[in-house]
Amino acid sequence: MPSPATRDLPLALPLALLLTSVLTALLTPALALIDDFPVVTTDQGSSILGRKLTSAGLRSGSLPRDYAAFFGVPYAKVPVGNRRFKPPVPEPLPSVVDAKMPTPGCLQLSRRPLEITGSEDCLTLQIFTPNVI
Question: Considering the entire predicted model, what is its pTM?
Answer without folding.
Answer: 0.65
